[in-house]
Amino acid sequence: MPKLKPFLFILSLSLIQFHCATSPAGRLPKVKASDLEFQGDIKTKIFSSWTAEIDTSFNKENIEANHVSERKKAFEDVVKQTGCCVLVDRKEDANLILNMKTYGATNLGVLFLGILSSVTVYLIPSWITLDARIEAQVQGRNLRRMYQLSDSVVLTQWLPLIVAEPSQDHLPLRAQDILLENVFKTLLLKMKEDGFLAPKQDKGPPTS
Length: 208
Fold this sequence. Notes:
The chain is α/β, with parallel strands linked by helices and 208 residues long. The protein has one domain (4-193). The protein has helices at 4-18, 60-82, 108-119, 175-193, and strands at residues 20-24, 44-55, 85-87, 96-105, 126-140, 143-157. It has a six-stranded mixed sheet. Helix 2 (60-82) crosses helix 4 (175-193). The longest helix has 23 residues, at 60-82. The radius of gyration is 20 Å and the shape is globular. Residues 3-18 and 200-204 have low confidence and may be disordered.
């Protein structure tokens, strides 16, 4: 039996990968890497604080904490990937202060359907909508803006989908990562267009 475990694990991942399909809502255009190219050696220093509002009556505090942790990591990964900025841990060290709020909801009916689908080896189809909705209040460089961004992708699980070739741009196992990445790239692009991320030397941190 122990020798079968690696095989069963790989088989499980294969089934998850190939019996799924994604349908992005596409409310936000895909941000290209060239859109977020930054020149110059001076990096904008960013401090971000996070809160969450999750529509749930079950384990609300823990769910919101996990939601914040997940979104914050996704944002910081995008910031590091673009090379636009430096993340700092104190407001007084920052050129920009971002107050971030993320929203979500839990649906026990959808969760039950997903479990039912899995125990029937995906003969019974299930659908789940992965949402990414954020509000960002950005302050610095004598500017202040509020950004509201949202997008989603529907993940369908159904055994007949195993015959469909998965999209290289929206692999099911990475659907949420891809969604969050584009939302946060869109935020950085809007900040760049509004002059927050201009490569110039600030005189000091923003006023609170």
